[in-house]
Amino acid sequence: MIYPSDLEIKIGFDRIRAMLLDRCMSTLGRRQVERIGLLTQKDRIELLLNQTEEFRQILLQNLPFPQSNYFDPTEAFRRIKPFETFLEPEDLLDLKLSYETILRIIAFLSQRTSEEALKFPWLATLTANLETDPQLPKDIDRIIDERAEVRSSASAALAEIRRRQQRLEAEANRKIAHLLQQVKSQGLVSSDVELALRNGRQVIPIAAGHKRKIRGIIHDQSATGQTVYLEPEEVFEINNEIRELELEERQEIIRILKTFTNRLRPLIPELIACYRMLGIMDAIRAKALIAIDMLAQKPRIKENPGMQWVKAMHPLLYLSHKAQKKHVEPLDIALENDNRILVISGPNAGGKSVCLKTCGLLQYMIQCGLLVPMADYSEAGIFEQLFIDIGDQQSLENDLSTYSSHLLNMKHFMEHSNGKTLFLIDEFGAGTEPRIGGAIAEAILEKLNQKGAFGVVTTHYANLKLMAGKHKGIANGSMLFDTGSMRPLFRMKTGNPGSSFAFEIARNIGLPEHILKQAGEYAGVQELDFDRQLQDLDLKKSELEDKEKELRSADQFLSEMIDKYEKLSGELEGRKAEILAQSRAEAKKVLADTNRMIENTIRKIREAQAGKEETRQARLEMDQFIQQQEEKLKEAKTHQKKEKKPVTAPVPERDNTPIVIGDAVRVQGQQSIGEVLEISGNKVVVSFGSIKFRTTMSALEKLKKSSLGQPAERKVKVKMAFDINEKAVEFNPQIDIKGLRAEEALMKLRRYIDDAVLLGVKQVKILHGKGDGILREAVRDLLQGIPEINRYRDEHPDRGGAGATIADFR
Prior knowledge:
By secondary structure, this protein is an alpha/beta fold. It is 50% helix and 16% strand. The chain contains 25 helices and 24 strands. The strands form five sheets. The chain has a seven-stranded mixed sheet with strand order 1-11-12-13-9-14-15, sandwiched between helices. A five-stranded antiparallel sheet has the order 19-18-17-16-20. Helix 2 (13-23) packs antiparallel against helix 3 (27-34). The longest helix has 84 residues, at 525-608. The two termini are 54 Å apart.
């Protein structure tokens, strides 16, 4: 149920419908679009959305779906219902071409994947129970050609008639051409006269004074009467025979068409079903086309009422801004059991009404089976009733003022609302004396809340803003305003009411200060204090959110530093154990060789009973061997000392001049040195290698660049002894982070991306699963901030679709 009856016009759906009609290829599709209306069955809505999403994928992948010859034979079928009626050749040609399109669509949707599943199962439901006759186009083709003319081969009688016609026409042409040459030679007509055509017959133009010199029949004369058009007697009888053959030809054609139509007539119910499918497919195609234009996707559909919309945009506003190359600020909107009614406040022209219309239009589009511009992990519930009160509804015919019309709408809302109603009210309470209007609006809103209805209202009234703290089920939302530039931001935040910023806007446009001061006195201290408190509350909330972001960033930076430290420590421990093991092995080898040399020397002396000279020679050889082993040990120790030689880093000196972009800085109490990338007021973005860290100016100390040495000396260098080839062999171009918490998954993914960059990998695949889409969104936020990533996209639907992301490196 929708209320009022012109709801589609008020929310802008009439323009969406016009766009759909414009993109349809046939009257079949336009009839389907005109029937679009609010649906309340979840299964039906899911079916329509899935069908549109599948067609969107077909268009995006540029697949060869048949998109031509969408003719509508409905009128022709109605005309041939009585017996003895028949289809004209033009109707048959349209039927042939469009029926071939139907057969190609059925064949396209019958395609299966390697797992024997249908590629487009939701669209395939439209063709599942259709009865078709593949022979029909061939039968039509035997009767008519591509110019919608009946073929001579359609029957033996027709072929014979046309042969006789051709023979007689050739004979008549030959005779009249001969007669024309005769009268030219006799001087009855000038030499440049040509044959003319009158009443379907060839005639000779001749001067009226010579008309009795040629026997024949006059068919016409010129406007002046000086020229007559004469058919010679010699060809008159031949032309009569030709006319008789033309009548026979027409009768034979009608007989052929009647025979075929009699065969076709029993098939009309099946044909109507096929063409109904063609019309639905045309309408789905139109829905998919506008979905691509407005970046629309399929949200998750819930049985129960409610909204959990992420990055939702008003489609008409998006298309308008897109043409002007302007940005549209997306909205996050939540209506659930604890917060069913959203009271939006904020400055004039700040986007309150756009937000309200966005809710109405997108919800209506979803329940009409159209894709909508919002994140695909958004959740959309189903409402059985949609009520709206927006715009000036003054009625001169019914003697109703604008406010009276609003009250009549409110009366209808209260009488018919329930837990499955969505109501939308713009400028709630306006149109009458503010205090009375605000009080009535508060009572009405309380009643609607008691009925369990869902709704969005916009207002400037303070008493409605305060209801969120008094009544469960009502929440505040505010449209943000930049007090620095004095312009609305068109972004909505839930949780706090918004200020109207009336005095600030008035001051910005140049209203005299004494007028504003006087207005402040009239408004009263209490009213101004309330508005200032709203502004202060919003400012403090914004500051707290900034601090929270800084803390999260610092925590992330610290986690990365700890992770890098643990990794480095592990590598050093491994290297240490390797060196010790190698040293032990070398020492054992030296000792064993020395023992063998001593034993060998003693054995030689004993066996030879050597004299002094032999003994001296053996001792000399042993001394040389010991000296060689000592030199080897000395070299090994020298090599280890070189590896362990500490790098004397220069001592940084503090610089007390103001911090500017490009300066070397460090966080007070820390040793890591970074470079200033951005400065915004008191906020500073510092780069520590590949890590960006946001903090405040007061938390940093500036360092003299001259005291830091060369840039290479500032970096901590860790020499890692690993085999790059081995790392390349072990690298997997696919990483699976499904089931991990977002923090763990992102940490694992960062390491994986670092390895991919190091190895020069061109493309990787990230398996994150579909779920609620939270991990997918986090992964894409991370990829967007990595400069080495060129682009990223969803995997092909057959290989994971939105459950996997393909990332290409530069």
